[in-house]
């Protein structure tokens, strides 16, 4: 097991190196594409390997041979490996989609030469955030992916994108500063930023101070995860970016925030003093998010609001703070990444076929492109939670976890999540009726959708279906991940085997001793 | 150990001024606000590192008198990141000025649209589906039951052909 731990840093190292290579090759777009696709395929392969290996216990690497509490460590436990696998599958599909889009329409919306390096840096940042076993390295991971996302959201620099980018960037910068303040305060209180050591030391400090630290960290993560009332930036900024960029943002970036919340709540602050507050936040996120979606006319904005709303489901599972709750929440994250990304990719195709994203202007797409209708319908029903799709399984898991906890507040959340599911169904069926069944205001010429864009979308929809078919093993996996998270000792023991130091040994020291 | 009061007051002033500037509309003021808050956070790290000491170099300084090197390394990283972000925000403010001759953060048009409709108590979308075609639901259903029939939507389609 430990002899394979050298592959843990690869999901960060490969895309970063490939980004440098892609930037150097900016004059040769074809080679650039080859580099990006190869890099992300390799990352997917590594992630799947990690997924299998992490099932036997967390893999830990002390970077540069510096032992854990002082040096930076990367940890691939079940949760990290699962998130990494889903995210690398999604980023690969979106990359293929954007390649085809770049081939179809050359200018304006098409990715320019800066797109590939930036996209690779983004995936490296996401992987770094998932793998990091160190709070400050987590911050660096966030910054890597945010810096890349700033470039991607303002790609082309049109007036509309600058407007959206301004909101997005200022809010993200603010959350980064909050995160930084939280790290500084945590360091002042405990003298460490290593997650495993924090898990040992945080219970020893004053409970009041601990609560302040927890609130600060959760605030920073909640802005990134778009939890109400810190979610208003998301529907304003996401819809203007190019379709593949919106898709990957919607799928991954908020989930990195959710992942960070899971880590903080399980590893650092397991006493659960903020669980009730989180439950209320989850309820507000679900209900207010979906009410926003119902009011929208633009299909991209509608989906952005459902994105916010469904973050509430994950927070619901996390805030229940039981094994069942974490299990369902992790499964829901995996489901939601694939389904939300697929939907945004489909909307990119809808915009192509229908010439608009406004539900008033769209119409008759079911007759025009039946394939697109199927590609929209399956993930839409999946998101709404129609049995037997994975959205239904995730929601049933959450409801079960809520009922098992059985407090009045948990029951309120159960009712709230059912109402939200129904309203999601309403919003998506409305979108379906308007875009696909409504008589078009003016007849549109038939369009041929490029195969290169349809195939990755179809692949993502298929991954969503795979999550349904393979729900048994996957749910068992997330359950094992949840049990480990709640127990905490597997993570801490893997990083600090003797409770003091990690296993890293620098070559110099080894030589001196030998 | 009690922290240096001068540093703590400076941090407070930096954060207060930064928050005030962040609430401005002009992007260049927001940018200065971000810089101030970022520097406040960096100073906070220095305070978090404990009392000042001599350079933390093994061999040059006795162990008891060293300052804590870890927060300084972190501050260095944070400074570099803030520098990059500042450069990007500046570029964006300049781009905004190029496009609009000002760098003010604009409202979202779609947001205002929906707010206006809500204030006037109108529907978000108006089309054949939302218009009342018949008196009762039954009549409406009877009219729209078949696409090939003489239903309202089909007529519209034929009319255009």
From TrEMBL, chain A:
Keywords: Cell membrane, Membrane, Transmembrane, Transmembrane helix. GO terms for biological process: ATP synthesis coupled electron transport. One of its GO terms (molecular function) is NADH dehydrogenase (ubiquinone) activity. One of its GO terms (cellular component) is plasma membrane. It is a multi-pass membrane protein. It comes from the Bacteria. The keyword Transmembrane applies. It is found in: Cell membrane; Membrane. The keyword tRNA processing does not apply. Belongs to the CPA3 antiporters (TC 2.A.63) subunit D family. This is Na+/H+ antiporter subunit D. It comes from Cellulomonas humilata.
Automatic annotation (TrEMBL), chain B:
The keyword Transmembrane applies. Signal peptide: none annotated. Residues 137-161 are annotated as: Disordered. The chain crosses the membrane at residues 6-23, 30-53, 73-94. Residues 137-150 have a biased composition (Acidic residues). NCBIfam families: PRK07946.1. This is Na(+)/H(+) antiporter subunit C. It comes from Cellulomonas humilata.
């Amino acid at each position: 097991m430990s002899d394979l731990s050298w592959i843990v840093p690869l999901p960060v190292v490969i895309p970063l190196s490939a980004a440098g290579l892609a930037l150097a090759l900016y004059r040769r777009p074809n080679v650039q594409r080859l580099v990006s696709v190869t890099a992300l395929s390799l990352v997917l392969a590594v992630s799947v390997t990690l997924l299998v290996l992490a099932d036997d216990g967390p893999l830990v690497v002390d970077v540069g041979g510096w032992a854990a509490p002082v040096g930076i460590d990367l940890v691939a436990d079940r949760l990290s490996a699962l998130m990494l696998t889903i995210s690398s599958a999604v980023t690969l599909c979106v990359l293929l989609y954007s390649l085809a889009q770049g081939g179809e329409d050359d200018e304006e919306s098409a990715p320019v030469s800066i797109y590939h390096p930036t996209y690779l840096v983004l995936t490296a940042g996401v992987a770094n955030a998932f793998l990091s076993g160190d709070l400050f390295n987590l911050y660096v991971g966030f910054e890597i992916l945010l810096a890349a996302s700033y470039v991607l959201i303002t790609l082309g620099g049109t007036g509309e994108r600058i407007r959206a980018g301004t909101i997005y960037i200022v809010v993200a910068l603010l959350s980064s500063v909050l995160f930084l303040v939280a790290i500084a305060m945590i360091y002042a209180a405990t003298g460490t930023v290593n997650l495993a050591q924090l898990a040992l030391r945080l219970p020893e400090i004053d409970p009041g101070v601990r609560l302040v630290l927890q609130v600060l960290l959760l605030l920073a993560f909640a802005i990134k995860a778009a939890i109400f009332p810190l979610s208003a930036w998301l529907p304003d900024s996401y819809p203007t970016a190019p379709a593949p960029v919106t898709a990957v943002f919607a799928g991954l970036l908020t989930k990195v925030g959710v992942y960070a919340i899971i880590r903080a709540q399980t590893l650092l602050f397991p006493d659960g003093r903020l669980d009730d507050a989180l439950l209320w936040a989850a309820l507000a996120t679900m209900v207010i998010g979906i009410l926003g979606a119902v009011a929208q006319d633009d299909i991209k904005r509608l989906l952005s609001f459902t994105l916010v709303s469904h973050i509430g489901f994950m927070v619901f599972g996390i805030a229940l703070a039981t094994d069942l709750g974490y299990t369902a929440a992790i499964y829901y994250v995996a489901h939601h990444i694939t389904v939300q990304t697929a939907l945004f990719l489909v909307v990119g195709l809808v915009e192509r076929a229908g010439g608009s994203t406004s539900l008033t202007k769209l119409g008759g797409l079911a007759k025009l492109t039946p394939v697109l209708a199927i590609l929209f319908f399956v993930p839409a029903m999946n998101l709404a939670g129609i049995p037997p799709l994975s959205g239904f399984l995730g929601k049933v898991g959450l409801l079960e976890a809520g009922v098992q906890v059985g407090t009045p507040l948990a029951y309120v959340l159960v009712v709230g999540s059912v109402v939200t599911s129904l309203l999601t169904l309403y919003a998506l069926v409305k979108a379906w009726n308007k875009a696909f069944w409504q008589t078009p205001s003016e007849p549109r010429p038939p369009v041929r959708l490029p195969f290169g864009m349809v195939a990755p979308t179809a692949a993502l929809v298929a991954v969503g279906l795979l999550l349904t078919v393979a729900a048994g093993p996957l749910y068992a996996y997330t359950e094992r991940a949840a049990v480990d998270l709640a127990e905490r000792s597997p993570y801490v023991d893997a990083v600090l085997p003797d409770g003091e130091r990690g296993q890293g040994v620098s070559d110099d020291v080894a030589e001196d001793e030998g | 150990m009690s922290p240096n009061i001068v540093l703590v007051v400076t941090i407070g002033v930096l954060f207060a001024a930064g928050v005030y500037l962040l609430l401005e509309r002009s992007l260049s003021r927001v940018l200065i606000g971000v810089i101030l808050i970022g520097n406040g956070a960096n100073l906070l790290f220095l305070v978090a590192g404990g009392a000042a000491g001599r350079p933390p170099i093994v061999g040059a300084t006795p162990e008891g008198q060293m300052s804590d090197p870890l927060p300084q390394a972190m501050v260095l990283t944070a400074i570099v990141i803030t520098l990059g972000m500042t450069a990007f925000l500046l570029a964006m403010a300049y781009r905004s000025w190029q496009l609009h001759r000002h760098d003010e953060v604009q409202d979202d048009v779609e947001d205002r649209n929906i707010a206006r409709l809500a204030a006037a108590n109108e529907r978000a979308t108006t089309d054949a589906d939302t218009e009342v075609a018949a008196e009762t639901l039954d009549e409406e259903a009877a009219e729209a039951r078949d696409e090939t029939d003489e239903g309202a939507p089909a007529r519209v389609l034929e009319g255009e052909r």
